[in-house]
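Reading group handout, session on sequence-to-structure problems. Before we discuss, look at one worked example. The prompt was deliberately terse, the way you'd type it at a terminal:

> structure Putative monooxygenase MoxC

The input record follows.
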Amino acid sequence: MSTQPKQVILGAYLGGVNHHTSWWHPEAGSQIDFGTFEHTARTAERGRFDFFFLAEGLALRERAGQIFDQDIIGRPDTFTVLASLAAVTEHLGLAGTINTTFNEPYELARQFASLDHLSGGRAAWNVVTSFDAFTGQNFRRGGFLDPADRYTRAEETLKATRALWDSWREDDIAADPATGRYLARPDAGAFAFHGSQFDISGRFTVPRSPQGRPVILQAGVSPQGRAFAAANADAIFSPYGKLPQAADFYRDIKARAVAAGRSADDIKILPSASFVLGDTEAEALEKYRTVQLEQVTGQTALVLLEQIWNRDLSGYDPEGPVPDIDPDPEAPPIIQGRAFVHQDRFATAERLRAVAAAKKLSLREAVIDQYERGALVGTPAQVADRIVSFVHGDGSDGFILGSHLVPWGLDEFVEKVVPLLQDRGVLRAEYTGTTLRDNLGIPVPRVNLEASTRH
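And the output record:
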């Protein structure tokens, strides 16, 4: 039996189109300059992180028909950025968020397989679906898919993409004994996939990737989302940064994975977290409060509540009470392009009012209190202890970390916290694997020849 302590998985995300990034900070860098992406990725690799994660926005968000003036505008193409980062990193995994609603399996399979080859086996795909017709206006398919249909299309997109990846086996390219030339076997790349969403066949152009298939990431909280992730994902983003909810989610996903015929270790649970460090705990807490006030300005607080109330709240004082009027779910959406995560507008509004009353908070303070994402705040030693305690308590298998200050914020974590994690034996001192799957401890998928798509 191994005596090595459970290892901590670390991912780095680059903050983008949301209020968590202090993009107006005088020390903040560009959100679209390649140097920003390069610095974040190189810093993460210097800290022996497992992967770099890139979110994506497919539409410029709007409020009442106008582009958010407090948002970052724009996001370069994911594949272009990740392919560029493959050239300036050697070990770091490269994870991109790509939508299944508006993309076809063939192009998805080809793009990710190409990235996996270019990076030497470091590609990962965060599988997401589209949530509204507003985003769909940018695409030929357009329109809106109901939640059940979104998951149906997502699952079939993933199955078709995997069929394409598996149309090449490791031994499909072999040397000709007579000439010494490398030749493909006659049926290499042949595929056929028939389903309710896709009816495709042909030959896939990219040989099997260095890690068999790119790593699959997914996020799902609903029963349908959890079932999809447990059956298909190699890692899932957890929305829970605090125990015991995180441990309950951890156990549920692992149990679902086993029920789907997988090993519990085949899927990793990773919540996102920000961090604020100080020489003392008091200093860290003071810095964190300053960061919160910078992130949630009065205007931002009103916009966040407008998504719940679906009303124009610009006439309310952010330093005054939470609105006592009810939400209006039947009105046209005032906020467009932001995923709605509140299942019940009325219950959410009532909870905000109750919290504000109980804690004697203003509208802005109530938003800061309720939108807090479980940041890691304290001295470097305290933050390292919290990470180890959380992971070893099966709240997660690691964290995806980001800073409010782009791209320089991650440097402080790498310089001050990473050495402590390495001293505790929970984070590698050097990379030992050659692929992202190696570093995550996720097995290479086996191709089921009996279920092969070749005909």
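Points for discussion. First: Residues 297-370 form one domain. Second: The first helix runs from residue 34 to 46.
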